[in-house]
Each structure stands twice: as structure tokens, then as C-alpha cells.
């Protein structure tokens, strides 16, 4: 497989203004030098605690923002520094499924109009062709096409997320960023929506960047997993390797807090409690950004930022503990 999406040294810094004259007093480094590939047909899980920058990263990759710097290419096309206006023709290729289906659907539009909107904007199909396509999409996501003229409020949360997914699929995208697509849903229907996303991936050959704070769910759906902390990816690995043998101390701590699915191991996996809070992304520590909380911190960690690199085949991390394992 080859990379469909390639991200290099992506930065998304937001200015902070304060005071009567709205003077610029600093910046939040929400995404601060992130690099990864998303391979064709895979699901790359992007995990981390709330505020780590994972949602901003997903939106930046789709160029929903003007990024601070970095390279992004999708399907061989460079979209990193491209002005918004020129991104239009790339829009159909890359889509987003949002966390809150309630907030992302216009309550004054019928389901048909919502799913049809991207077709209106980006295609020259006739009205009849568009309506036929909407009906097909409703079938694909498991919505009864008889309900096409209803409004979002008439649907349950899970059904509304299906509407959002149908809209994202309308232009036959290759790449979809799913930002916590089930976090706002009832636990009882979360699995249905995850299964639907997996079925659609298979059926349409989709590639996902799957953003979530839920490590158990990501373990189920992801091919590989990237872990973010304070605006940086600290580790990226194939799913099995990451869960069985996490390399970065932050990943270890994060995974030690996940309930153990194997009852025979219950209580045997040591719970790692991190000291202190996550530092502010406007004032990250010198050196390794995890050094203020890391149980394995060394002197070098407070001075030199560890380089993010492949320390074992297919396994990337940024940590001085792996300095000696280079090639
Ligand atoms: Fe911990 Fe040092 Fe590795 Fe950072 S570089 S994660 S502080 S051991
Ligand atoms: Mg978020």
C-alpha cells in the first residue's frame, strides 16, 4: 500500500490577544510540527486527551484552516500552502464527519437537501440525478429513503450521524476525517455507527483518519495509531504493537488507564498515574514537552527536544530513551 495522505511538519498556531487594544501577547501551539502518512485504505487512529490538538490537526489536514506552516498532500496533490480558493477542486476528495451531528446539520433543511448540497456545489448533475444519488446514499447508510423530506429533528442521534455520513460520501471522497464520530451518541448505538463506518470503508475503498479519545474503540477500528500530546505526535505504530508494547512513556500511561479486556490480566497491569497537569500549549516546557510529567525523565530531556523518528521498523516515537536504538 502507498500513502494517500502525507503530512510533514504541520503547524497550526493561533495568536492570543489580550487587553483593551487586543495586543498580541502570545500564541497557542495547537499543532506543533506533526508528521505522518495515512496509507490507502487504512484507518489511522489519532488519539490523545482533550485539548491535545487532535481535532485541530484533523481540520488542518483537510485545510479547513489556513495553516501556519507544513506540507500536506492528498492523492499526490500538494494542498499545504494552497490558498483556500484553489482548494475547491480538491474538496470532493476529502471530507469530514463531525462529532456532533446535531450541530453540523442545518435544522431548516430537509435530509434530502442536506445530502444534496455538496452535489449542488460541486457537480453538474440534473435534479433528478441528484435525487437518485441521495436515495442511493440513504440506502448505503441505512436510512429509509421514504424519510428524505423530513427535517433533522425528526431523527435520533444515531440517524442524524448517518445523515452526516451520507453527506460526507456524496462526492465519492477517498479520504474522510472522522472527528469523534460516536462520542455524542448513546452507548447503545455507538457500535452500530462504528460498524457502518467499517462497512462503508470496505464498500467504497475509503481511507480514514479516525480521531478519538477512546482507546478501546480505536483498538477495535484502527490499522495504525498515532498518539498526540500537547500538539505533537509522540508515538505512531501498528495497532497490535502499540497496545502490546507501547514505547513512549506517555503512551504507556495512557494505555495503563484503559480497562483491561482480558480478565486474567485484571489488576496485573500497573496503572501509571501521571504527576501534574498538561502544561499550557501557549507555554510548553523546554526540551521534551512531556518532561514535566514523565516517570522516566532524564537530564537531557529538559534541554533537548527528542527527534521524532522511526526507532524500529514501522514504529515512530519522539523520546530520548530510544536514542541508542538508532539503526
Ligand atoms: Fe520522558 Fe525524556 Fe522520553 Fe520525554 S524524552 S518522554 S521526558 S524519557
Ligand atoms: Mg475534539
Describe the structure.
Its main location: membrane. Keywords: ATP-binding, Nucleotide-binding, Transport. One of its GO terms (molecular function) is ATP hydrolysis activity. The chain has 327 residues and is an alpha/beta fold. The chain has one domain: Rossmann fold (3-Layer(aba) Sandwich), CATH 3.40.50.300. 28% of the residues lie in helices and 25% in strands. It contains nine helices and twelve strands. It has helices spanning 54-61, 101-104, 111-122, 127-140, 157-169, 187-204, 215-221, 239-244, 249-256; strands spanning 3-18, 23-39, 43-47, 69-74, 77-78, 94-97, 175-179, 207-212, 224-229, 232-238, 309-312, 315-317. Strands 6-7-8-3-9-10-12-11 form an eight-stranded mixed beta sheet, with helices on both faces. A four-stranded antiparallel beta sheet has the order 2-1-4-5. Strand 4 and strand 5 form a beta hairpin. Helix 3 (111-122) packs parallel to helix 5 (157-169). The two termini are 24 Å apart. The mean pLDDT is 93. The protein binds iron/sulfur cluster (SF4) and magnesium ion. Iron/sulfur cluster binds at residues 248-249, 288, 290-291, 294, 296-298, 301, 306, 319-321.
